[in-house]
Inverse folding.
């Protein structure tokens, strides 16, 4: 891996798109080579979602009201446990240092890694959501809104999570500290995401919540890669 | 004569200045707190709707204001520290964090005690209370990250990035009242229209706010002095200090 980074020609200086493409392709390829790990993270999501009815009640009305929130909380937790994948491996074997030194803009590389992280951990959660939603007796419309909300919201989780993942690189107590740093930042996504389904169920329409989620996604895309890149630089120095 | 804006950006010159300022702010805070509590507990009349329970606002509202304001101040110093790579700014941001967390905790605690007689519940999942709780977690996150990193310079910059990320939460707190239609009453103080509360109550609250503000300044300055001598203990200016030589 180190060799591929070093082989980048100096012409790449300032090249945003090639850098991003390289980072996405590399991280997706690496993730697909450890499919078992991805599968375990997805199973974590499935199991967390399946536990809540056992802890409360199999009553259909209660499940319908609870379902969107449970699926969202589980998506947050699934995102949280997958965050160390983003930088920790590369940090441990020195690749991250090479990435920082490469002539590509660091922001582009970090953004590419975030995109790859979402494709391999966020997108499967979105795809599974409508199936898991059936456990909670949700109707077709609620399922459609839930999936749309997750589709807009889970990239925000990867973007914000990248900042926390980079800040906690190489620290003791990294895992629990990561949760403390990242989960409060996830709260607005949770509120608007679960709120979208609640609003749709109440007949108010999910547009307002989905628009706010979309606005959040745009802000996160513009800001988070820069913060994450700064955090990576701090961790590598 | 040109002003040297950076004269007090050095710990060696700021340390004695902070030492001279602390008594002023501490005494101002104490006197204002006595005056504010006297206005709030003795002079201000009993509210015709809420009874005497409303008097908690003389603590609650200043603490809630300070909790948000201190986060913004901390973010401002963090931004300066990251932008200009100044040591003292990062130390100030570090010194403000515990006071901010304390104010947030007081706001939540007194809010619960006010909510019990007024709303009939200690806790409601209202937007502003929830945002204040998240703010407390943000403070804890910054403090925890600081303690997890051994190298103070790396901790400075990491906490700076985290603080600036978290500052996005402040507008959410402020606008949450409009975004969600909930149990919590709307903001009573308004810059544009006449205040809906009796002016003596408003006076008491403002006096208490200044007391909280000056307290926060005094405590942050005292804390930043200890951070300065702890971090620069190998520096010549620290070992030449009177209190260090006598110790």
């Amino acid at each position: 891996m180190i060799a591929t980074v070093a082989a980048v020609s100096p012409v790449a200086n300032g090249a945003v798109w090639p850098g991003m493409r390289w980072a996405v392709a590399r991280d997706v390829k690496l993730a697909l080579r450890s499919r078992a790990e991805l599968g375990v993270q997805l199973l974590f999501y499935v199991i967390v979602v399946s536990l809540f009815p056992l802890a409360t009640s199999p009553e259909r009305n209660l499940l319908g009201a609870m379902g969107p929130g449970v699926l969202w909380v589980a998506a947050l937790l699934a995102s949280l446990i997958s965050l160390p994948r983003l930088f920790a491996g590369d940090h441990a074997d020195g690749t991250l240092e090479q990435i920082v030194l490469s002539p590509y803009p660091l922001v582009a590389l970090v953004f590419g890694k975030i995109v790859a992280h979402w494709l391999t951990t966020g997108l499967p959660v979105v795809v599974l959501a409508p199936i898991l939603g059936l456990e909670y007796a949700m109707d077709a419309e609620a399922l459609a809104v839930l999936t749309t909300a997750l589709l807009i919201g889970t990239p925000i989780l990867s973007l914000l999570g990248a900042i926390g993942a980079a800040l906690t690189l190489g620290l003791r107590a990294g895992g629990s500290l990561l949760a403390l740093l990242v989960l409060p930042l996830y709260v607005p996504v949770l509120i608007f995401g679960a709120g979208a389904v609640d609003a749709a169920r109440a007949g108010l329409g999910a547009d307002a919540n989905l628009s706010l989620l979309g606005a959040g996604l745009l802000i996160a895309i513009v800001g988070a890669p820069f913060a994450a890149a700064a955090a990576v630089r701090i961790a590598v120095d | 004569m040109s002003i040297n804006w950076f004269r007090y950006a050095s710990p060696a010159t700021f340390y004695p200045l902070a030492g001279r300022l602390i008594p002023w702010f501490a005494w101002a805070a104490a006197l204002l707190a006595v005056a504010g509590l006297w206005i709030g507990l003795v002079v201000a009349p009993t509210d015709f709707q809420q009874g005497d329970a409303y008097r908690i606002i003389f603590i609650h509202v200043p603490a809630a204001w300070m909790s948000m304001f201190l986060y913004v101040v901390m973010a401002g110093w963090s931004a300066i520290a990251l932008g200009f790579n100044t040591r003292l700014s990062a130390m100030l941001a570090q010194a403000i964090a515990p006071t901010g967390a304390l104010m947030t905790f007081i706001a939540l605690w007194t809010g619960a005690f006010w909510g019990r007689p007024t709303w009939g519940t200690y806790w409601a999942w209202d937007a502003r209370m929830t945002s204040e709780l998240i703010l407390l977690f943000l403070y804890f996150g910054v403090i925890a990250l600081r303690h997890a990193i051994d190298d103070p310079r790396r901790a400075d910059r990491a906490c700076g990035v985290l603080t600036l990320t978290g500052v996005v939460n402040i507008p959410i707190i402020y606008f949450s009242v409009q975004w969600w239609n909930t149990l919590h009453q709307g903001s009573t103080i308004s810059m544009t229209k006449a205040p809906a509360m009796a002016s003596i109550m408003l006076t008491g609250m403002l006096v208490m706010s200044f007391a909280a503000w000056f307290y926060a300044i005094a405590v942050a300055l005292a804390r930043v002095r200890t951070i300065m001598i702890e971090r620069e203990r190998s520096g010549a200016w620290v070992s030449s200090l009177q209190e260090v030589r006598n110790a």
In short: Chain A touches chain B through 25 residues (CB under 8 Å). Residues 207-236 of chain A form the longest helix (30 residues). The two ends of chain A are 20 Å apart (CA to CA).
